[in-house]
Amino acid sequence: MGLPPIAWPQPSSRSRAFPPTAALPPPWQPTVAGYLGRVPKPLILAAVTEAKSKAAADNIVTLKKGNMASHAAALLNGTGWLPAMLRAA
Predict the structure, then answer these.
(1) Is the pTM above the cut of 0.85?
(2) DSSP per residue, 31-44
């Protein structure tokens, strides 16, 4: 008096997890509103130093935080730099 076997659906060769036209979201970018305006100046300088160079960071070291964050966002744009908390372990 057992139960009948369960008929699980079989995957077809045409089924896909994502449609072929599915677009990936754009990569994360450090922006003034999203990151650079919320962290202290030493972290902004460290990000620019890591992504660009010490000379690039030295060029913005005397700016006030708002201007520093804006310049850093422009410098970091397109570099792929991520804060440590977002990097894969």
Answers:
(1) no
(2) -IIIIITTS-HHHH
Torsion of CA 76, 32, 68, 45, to 10 degrees: -50
In this structure, what are the phi and psi dihedrals at residue 44, rounded to the nearest 5 degrees?
-65, -45
Q: Answer for the pair 45, 61: CB distance below 8 angstroms, yes or no.
A: yes
Question: What are 8-33's pLDDT values in tens digits?
Answer: 777 665 555 656 666 778 889 999 99
Q: How many CB atoms lie within 10 A of CB 59?
A: 14
Q: CA-based angle 89:75:88, to the nearest 5?
A: 5
